[in-house]
C-alpha cells in the first residue's frame, strides 16, 4: 500500500492518525528559555523518532513553557511519551547548563503536570459524534466517510 497521506502512519499491520498537542512547563514557571536552551531541547530530541517512534512535527517555545505537536504509535500512552520527552530533554539541559539547577533549587526541570489533547484531521468532536451515531442507519446513505484507504 502506498502512503499518499503524510498524516497517516503505517506501522506493520496498523494504521494510525493520532496527533497530540502537548504543553510542558518549567518548574516553578521560571522564565528560563532563550535561544541556547531551546536549541539544547531540540538537539536532545532530534533522534526521538528513530529511537521511540515519536514524531515531533511542530515545537513552539515561550519563556516558561513549550508546546509540541506530536504523533506516536497508539501502543504508547500519552503519559509514557511525556515521560520520555521530559526525561531526555531535562538530562540534556542539566548536562549542558548545570547552573540551571541553582535556578530550580537543585530540583527537576519540568513541573510534574502537563497538558495533552488529541488533534483530529478528520473533524471536530461533534462531527465524529454524529458519524458514530449514524452507523448502521440505512436512511443516511450520504454519511461522512472518515477514511479513504
For this entry, give a set of tags.
Transposase_17; 149 residues; Transposase IS200-like domain-containing protein; 5 helices; two-stranded antiparallel ribbon; single chain; transposase activity; alpha+beta; 4-stranded antiparallel β-sheet; Alpha-Beta Plaits; 6 strands; Transposase_17_sf
The ordered H/E elements are: EEEHHEEHHEH
Query: Helix coverage percent of residues?
Result: 25-40%
Write out the strand line-up for the largest beta sheet, numbering strands in chain order: 4-5-3-6
Give the strand tally.
6
User: What's the main sheet like?
Assistant: 4 strands, antiparallel
Protein name: Transposase IS200-like domain-containing protein
GO molecular function, one term: transposase activity
Organism: Candidatus Buchananbacteria bacterium RIFCSPHIGHO2_01_FULL_46_12
Domain Transposase IS200-like: 15-135
Amino acid at each position: 500500500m502506498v502512503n499518499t497521506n503524510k498524516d497517516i502512519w503505517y506501522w506493520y499491520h496498523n494504521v494510525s492518525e493520532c496527533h497530540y498537542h502537548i504543553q510542558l512547563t518549567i518548574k516553578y514557571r521560571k522564565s528560563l528559555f532563550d535561544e541556547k536552551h531551546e536549541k539544547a531541547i531540540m538537539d536532545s530530541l532530534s533522534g526521538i523518532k528513530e529511537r521511540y517512534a515519536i514524531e515531533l512535527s511542530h515545537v513552539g517555545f515561550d519563556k516558561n513553557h513549550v508546546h509540541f505537536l506530536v504523533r506516536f504509535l497508539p501502543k504508547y500512552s500519552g503519559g509514557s511519551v511525556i515521560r520520555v520527552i521530559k526525561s531526555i530533554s531535562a538530562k540534556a539541559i542539566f548536562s549542558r547548563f548545570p547552573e540551571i539547577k541553582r535556578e530550580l533549587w537543585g530540583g527537576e526541570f519540568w513541573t510534574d503536570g502537563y497538558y495533552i489533547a488529541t488533534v483530529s484531521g478528520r473533524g471536530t468532536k461533534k462531527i465524529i459524534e454524529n458519524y458514530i451515531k449514524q452507523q448502521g442507519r440505512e436512511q443516511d446513505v450520504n454519511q461522512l466517510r472518515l477514511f479513504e484507504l
